DNA sequence: ACTTGTCCTGTCATGCCGTCAGCTTACCGA
DNA sequence: TCGGTAAGCTGACGGCATGACAGGACAAGT
């Protein structure tokens, strides 16, 4: 498990090579934000990076391979989302704040990386295991924390025994992800961000604790 | 607004032509279920339909054009989802049943059409207005009904005034759509359908009425 | 059989894909 | 300073999908 970056044909990449590789990744990332995934061509990425298509194929097997690379990076960042839930309280005013900050943090993360997350989502929905795994990695950080929170509340008798912590957490996280990826849609449809976030927080709070929050 | 089906070059299609066209749509539909959208090629669709690529281009400008066609059909079917909410009660046991049936109906609809809905979702998320419009058409049928339900309950004083009906309905519908499109994901992850549906119904009920259901 | 209009396909220019051999560049030890 | 070696890059090529066109096949009416 060395951090060795290798080319497709097995050579180890040096300083220059890594720079080129990174530049290709950056350009691909940018292209994903500005044009449909389906239309992203190797030749365009290469041109944008000021290199040739052949160079691209030295570092990545194909476009999807490069996308997976970017996705892994985002997944690493996403692991930090656990902080939004782990060890936070779910009672009283503090509980409401937990819900609010979770929503806030989640939506921001999604907006920062929306292009690549869209592609991950599609790949996962289409049944590609690699993308599915990455999606899990990102969402699990929050889902698992939320699942634990529910279990804890159940143990204390504050939440009904008959709800499934995993299903509840998964549903809520799926909701956050879906709303996040259609944020623009909501706004053009007439729902303002200012209305959206409190509502999501309310739903999260209701789902986890089963009670209305005390603001 | 005649129902006239036309070829790309303007001629009206006859019986035989319409049959060919429909066959191409069917084959495309099938291909979308079995392979990633990105990899669907005109030549494959044509081969599967027992015809030539040139024929495909007589009826559709490109793959996306044909996909939009299929999407419109699904949107028409989706309009019927209003029935799951319109005029249904949200109090007592009947309220719980409304929530359950909504979840059930929604998930079934999604599973029946998951391939095309995935593509619509992607197109919408990528900012394509045509796909966005279609997505709205499908989701609005439910969202608007739910929005009305919330407004009604607010008018009766049964729901807090400070929640935005549109944001709440939109969030819940987005959740249903997201969970639906990752149904397989949930199951391979260890959450059973039998757990998932009641949880979703619970969340819907909580979101709309603000109260736990009486089962 | 002939005509007319619909329907399909063979073919072609174009452009992207993915690979390879071979050239250039950087690093290093003598 | 000077090769030697490995990293890094690219031109060029066969292969395939695209999208356009003209012309052949076919059904229906006369």
UniProtKB/TrEMBL annotation, chains A, B:
A Pfam family hit: TetR_C_38
What keywords appear on the UniProt entry?
Answer: DNA-binding, Transcription, Transcription regulation
The record's InterPro entries line, in alphabetical order, gives: Homeodomain-like_sf (IPR009057), HTH-type_TetR-like_transc_reg (IPR050109), HTH_TetR (IPR001647), Tet_transcr_reg_TetR-rel_C_sf (IPR036271), TetR_C (IPR011075)
Gene3D superfamilies named in the record: Homeodomain-like, Tetracycline Repressor, domain 2
Q: Which GO terms describe its molecular function?
A: DNA-binding transcription factor activity; transcription cis-regulatory region binding
Q: Which residues form the HTH tetR-type domain?
A: 18-78
**Residues annotated as DNA-binding region?**
41-60
Q: Which domain of life is it from?
A: Bacteria
Q: Which PANTHER family does the UniProt record give?
A: HTH-TYPE TRANSCRIPTIONAL REGULATOR BETI (PTHR30055:SF234), HTH-TYPE TRANSCRIPTIONAL REGULATOR RUTR (PTHR30055)
Question: What is this protein's name?
Answer: TetR family transcriptional regulator
